[in-house]
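Appendix C reproduces, verbatim, an entry submitted by the partner laboratory led by Prof. M.T., so that reviewers can inspect both the input and the predicted structure.
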Amino acid sequence: VSAGIHLRKIPIYPEGNRQVSSLPAETPSWQRIGSDRIEPAEIVETLGTENYVTRYYIRKDTAATERPVIIELHAAYYTGMIDTVPHIPERCFVGGGLQQSKASKTIPVPMAGASWLPDTTVEPEYAGADGVIYTVRLANNPAYTDAPGRRVRLPRGIGPDSPLRMRCSEFLVPGGGAYYAGYFFVANGGTVASANGVRELAFDLSDDYAYYLKVQVNSATVGSMEELAEQAGSLLDELIGEIMRCVPDWVEVERGNYPPRAAGDPGDSGRG
């Protein structure tokens, strides 16, 4: 470390090393279908992490209709690797034989945010350009969470007037039909919707630690990239607090409170 520049990143994990597979199988509006997909060893090796989840959710109010809405959710957590190249649909799906039919675009993800409130305890220097960090209340029903009613901080820059943004693509499926994919990253307390952006965000040279969580949604039951963002917004509105439990609370990292220091280790904050 020299002049506040950290060229080597220290791995960091969420409280209790909470795995993304712990995301609730059911929310008020969505229900998991089947079991989480367990990838073969060679796929996990390519993925580059064992902390991942791939599962299907169906929107409950469409389950008995002629056009049920089904979303595949994939999330994968990475930490400490400064040269990681994120796996994104534009590369992986095309490499797998799908044809991208339109230019990708970044789309706001509409979330109701009914329980979002500003966290007035966060100092301005840790609150990002907006000067405020919001919290979301987890579900009150213990069927949907193991921490009913708890408040969890959202990423910097996400609030009622600054929605989450997702990079969306449309692919043609051999034999007809379209398949839609969208993704974003949570990295070092912020969010970004591009692979290049996540490197800049997670590997800030002034940070000791580096992590990112890729969140991807795929669907063949929507009709456009905009509809994918709309349906993903419904699911993410009910999962975003649980997703943020699967990453370190970056406010506490920057305050120097997390990860806990060993006795006698003065340490320093996440931002050198």
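The chain has a mean pLDDT of 89. Additional entries are available on request from the coordinating office.
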